[in-house]
Predict the structure.
Amino acid sequence: MMKANGKSEGLIRLEIDGRTVSVPDGSTILDAAKLLGIEIPTLCYSPLIEPYAACRICSVEVEFSGGKRRIVTACNYPVWEGIKVYSDNAKVRRIRRMIVEMLLARCSSVGVLKDLAAKYGIEEVRLEKQEEKCILCGLCVRVCAEVVGKAAISFAGRGLHRRIATPYDRETEDCIACGACALVCPTGVIRVEDTEGRSVAHEELQLGPPKAVTVPFLQAVPNAPYIRVDRCIHFQTGGCGHCAEVCDRDAIDYEMKDEEIEVDAGNIIVATGFELFDPSVMGQYGYGRYRNVLTSLEFEHLNSASGPTGGRIMLANGDAPSVVGIVHCVGSRDQRYHEYCSKVCCMYALKYAHLIKEKTKAEVYNFYIDMRCSGKGYEEFYDRLLAEDVRFVRGKVGEISHVPIGEGEEGKLVIRVEDTLVGIVRRIPVDMVILCPAMKAQPDAKEFSRVFSCSVGRDGFFIEKHPKLAPVSTTTEGIFIAGACQGPKDIPETVAQGAAAAAEVLSLIDRKEIEIEAATAVIDEERCSGCRICNTLCSFGAISFDEQKKVSVINAALCKGCGTCVAACPQGVIKARHFTDRQIVSEIEGILR
Amino acid sequence: MNFEPRIVGFLCNWCSYTGADLAGTARIKYAPNIRSIRVMCSGRVDPVFVVKAFAEGADGVLIAGCHPGDCHYQEGNYKALRRYLLLKRVLPEYGIEPGRLRLEWIAASEGERFAQVVNEFTEQVRGFGPMNFKDSLLESMKNDVMIHGEPETQATGEQR
């Protein structure tokens, strides 16, 4: 990136390795080299931060117009008219080799230095070797101060004792856990860890804190990125602001506020989906303790071609697994958690087994209670997997542990399970375990149901009006439900329900008129005393007072027919159609005869 | 002979009646002493109905509606609660133990709870023993609960 800063519009011509280039005044040699595509190695440089020239690895030789030559650092040396730069001559290479050798002596196992050593032909370090990881480039300190606007880390000690530290070496409140220091660290010595103790998820799945600028998910509509205010450095410290700098379209506006938009709608389709059961409450499965115990969703992410590993299935240490166990019915079909069957797990477990076989040649075990493969082509797929030599063990897994007892259990996760078909307890050592957690209702479904006055069942999912005749309707007119908010279901079923709900709505819109409940209340105007007690009782504002006639009147279109006003009328002149006093009294008399 | 109390249940259409239905479809056993009357909302239960039921020979009355905040009609169950508290004070005037009237919130999904409430309440009422009104009191009760509404003989267009 060029730091022209608009100081001067003048262009400066210089020569790098015999090639001429013009750059704005105020640029550095590194900027000019980048423009020509000439690579100059850097360690302590980041385009986001003012250059610092701490590592000296970007040293180049400059020849001035008078023929005088000098070694300078490219990252912070401003360009001059007519200078000649040698970025990779013998002298420069010699100097860089010395720098790399000294750094490598300090940090003998850092990958980026090993690469540089290979590039500059260093075979043997002549200095005493140390096992430091930090090269003291100061990028982290500077990014924290300059970009983030905090000072959570800084240099401590002098000379030999110089190191990066937090104030008093303690956890500091100044750290906002933005992860910027880890991002810029060239050696990877800074890692972001969850001090709450959940450092156990698959490393590949937890690459530091989530990004502050992100799209909600891959297929989101609209597929536009947004800023997560709780994660964004700018909103916490007022610093950074780099996204606005790099956006050509000026689309980033930090002043924008969340707004509530009111939409008038005659029909609402509730499709709020489900939540995945958290298997860490089932301690025996070790989720949250063992890195290679994943949930199905985490595996899906790992296995995705656009995921963190590009679809490569691997363990926490990067190796391919040789044995994988898939545990069905985690938290579903279980009296202690959710009694119902989660419905989709059998089939995706089969899909995983197939993909693992295909990608890694690993042995795959499925631990199931019952295989429920009802659906078009599903049973055939199951048969195909049986033929593919996927192992199926009928039995609920009792425990997953890393304690080796028998042979071949060293360094493995051991699944202890009763094989109910053979009638023995087996110990099966595996490398990776995939848990299939229950689909459960959204935690706020209950509050949600109050907003829409539809009801939720014992399992927390929304209840349809009628399981056969009105499967996407609710007890409230104009409110429809679709998808997993109604119960666990797979994608084809969800799509069908969504289409059904949409069709229900369309049929209402298309008709241009609606049928209202026949069971409404009516006031006998002749006998109404005009006391207005009923006026305040109606939750729907259906009762008004006719000032001229001095009687209360019910608007039949607004009345829902609850009958609260009927029970309250001291004159008894309000009648609830279909539920008249006379009808109910007759019922009382009838049942007590 | 064992005393089998007769209990009238006023169940709201959306929650409690559906809950009772669920108890039925789930084949949950509960005391057969309850006779249910469906109303659209517990707010429809006129206190007069309760007195009428006792006058007609009920040994207990159960009113069941949606849980607070869950009312299909937003707040009908709160109205029912008010009337219930009022009835609790009125019933002793007739010599009826307030414990013979019960108000419960039963959701559509709570079939088991419905059965449990009915069983519990049946035992509670059984504990009180049979109702024993003097004829004169019964007469005055029946007068008190004269049902208003359209005159019986006069057929109006609204009558359905």
Notes: Residues 7-140 of chain B form a domain with the Rossmann fold fold (CATH 3.40.50). Confidence is low (pLDDT under 50) at residues 150-160 of chain B. Chain B has five helices and four strands.
